[in-house]
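for the writeup, i need someone to sanity check this before i put it in the appendix. the sequnce is what the collaborator sent (i think, or maybe the updated version? ugh). structure was predicted straight from it, no edits. if anything looks off just tell me and ill rerun, i have time this weekend
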Amino acid sequence: MSTRCTIPDLPSERLYNSWKSLIPTLVLPFLNYMSRTLGKPLPPCLPSILLCKQNNCERKITKILCLLFDCE
């Protein structure tokens, strides 16, 4: 029979505390973002994002697929 852990271990406590301190800092920026963007179309995506200011940077390509579940 396996024993069940009823008291969180130290890594679990640290993770919980980090989320507990982070989440309140995200609420206002999220609400501001939602009020600016709710019901408005998304702007077109640029074909690429260039962060390198020099011409000799190695280029890497990452494709991202976004699924919008709240669109009607």
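The mean pLDDT is 80. The chain has one helix and no strands.
thx in advance!!
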